[in-house]
Amino acid sequence: MLTVKNLHAGIEEKDILKGINLEIKAGEVHAIMGPNGSGKSTLSSVIAGKEEYEVTHGDINLNGTSILEMDPEERAHEGIFLSFQYPVEIPGVSVTNFIKTAINETRKAKGLEDMPASDMLKMIREKSELLEIDRKFLSRSLNVGFSGGEKKRNEIFQMAMLEPKLAILDETDSGLDIDALRIVANGVNKLRSEDNAVLLITHYQRLLDYIVPDVVHVLMDGKIVKTGGKELAHELEEKGYDWLKAEVNV
Prior knowledge:
The chain is of the alpha/beta class.
């Protein structure tokens, strides 16, 4: 589904990613772990197409097609979803109206008519029930006055409605207490299927207790220095990153 080939990228002439190779197949969940400043969020931003980052070498393919020349909106229409670490607030725009607009813009990009209102309402009802979201929540202004847990749950609802091919969750566990983390993780697990894939960006192993990854990658100094199964996350939790730095001479 997603193939990253020898990716080099940075910002303001500063090299951050220094040769990333990554392949994520449909149905898989991959986790990217690493210390602060290693390039984790940069990787998610570059895949999503944030324009402040410059790709200097390499390629990113989604289902066999390079997406490097696509802007963020085009990538979203192709099925890439990015959950932000700090979701923005949009006063005056309800959660429901925001998601309706997002879905219909994607349909328009594919040459389709707007989703019929009855179908949209049915889908909203089904997804909100799946994620245990109170319908009153959907009439509130997007992220305005939301707690950290509510913001993250809202993003998982957006993900459920948009049904992306690749969902990138950038430190979605940041600032969440255990109850909120469990709710968000439960939502992600319910949306996993053989037709989509998930890329988790996280500092901590605790998220991976709830969303169990197929593959764990360790990113340090802009490079993936180690790849393993879910047990690698437990090893990092016990030992930290210093032992790995010594092993790979980063």
